[in-house]
Amino acid sequence: MTTAVTPRPDTGAKRPRRRKGLSPHLFLVLAVVISVFPFVWTIVMATNTTRDIYKSPPKLTFGSHLLENVRGVLDTVDFFGSMLNTVVIASVTTVLVLFVDSLAAFAFAKFEFPGRKILFGTLLVFMMLPLQLAVLPQFILMSEIGWVGMLKALVWPALSNAFGIFWLRQYIENGVPDELLDAARIDGAGFFRQYWNVALPMIKPALSFLAIYAFVGAWNDYVWPLIVLTNPEHVTLQVELAQLNVGHNTDYSMVMAGVLMASLPLVIVFAVFARGFIAGATEGAVQGS
């Protein structure tokens, strides 16, 4: 009677794999720590006093002065009024950017028309130019049409986002098959129906990324609102918070509390749209494997 001998698992072959997989994990952990540290440091400074911030070595633990610093922010500036203005501007800008940029990108990616390459090349040139170069022409234009001091002066100049059109054009060109558009044309679908019913549902991950990009850009914009918003009732949050950092005796703990309060909506927006972006990216990876 013979007994079956089971071979021993080759544990020596698995150890090198574990060692090889250890370095990427260490790199990712280090990258996460570096990315999260500024936010954690902001919370630390917002929960302590300015005297604790100036200590050497600095205090690295959370304090108990957060409510006091938040109360100081609310008493010094019109936080909620300026925040409402910023929410309206960032939300409207994001929705319009997604619509206008995706429509233009769809035309550039899937349709031939006279001057297509020249227009797209011009778009790339404008994307490489600093945004500060457009401040003076935009202000002159807003002054001519009487929009200086109004919130819509922040929305309309941001609609034709060169990066957004370029990003979506590249995504549509590779992510929307021509066969589906040909089938839609055979069924009698026009340009807008092809865009709305065929292309738009297939580029949701790219739209999620662009939504985050556009919202964060509109939320953090400081220079253009500072120049064009002459009405104190229409001031955005970043311009309002800048009043906390004035003078020689700046209360940096109160400034950091204001920064922390202004950052919370961005975290919420990122959590909402990043879920769709990651889900779409992983779905594409599974389908391609």
From TrEMBL:
Main location: membrane
Transmembrane segments: 25-46, 83-106, 118-141, 147-168, 195-216, 252-274
Membrane topology: Multi-pass membrane protein
This protein's UniProt keywords: Cell membrane, Membrane, Transmembrane, Transmembrane helix, Transport
One Pfam family matching this protein: BPD_transp_1
Residues of the ABC transmembrane type-1 domain: 83-273
InterPro entries according to UniProt: MetI-like, MetI-like_sf
Compartments in which it is found: Cell membrane
Family: Belongs to the binding-protein-dependent transport system permease family.
PANTHER family in the cross-refs: ABC TRANSPORTER PERMEASE PROTEIN MG189-RELATED, ABC TRANSPORTER PERMEASE PROTEIN MG189-RELATED-RELATED
Record-given protein name: Carbohydrate ABC transporter permease
Organism whose genome encodes this protein: Streptomyces gottesmaniae
Lineage per the UniProt record: Bacteria, Bacillati, Actinomycetota, Actinomycetes, Kitasatosporales
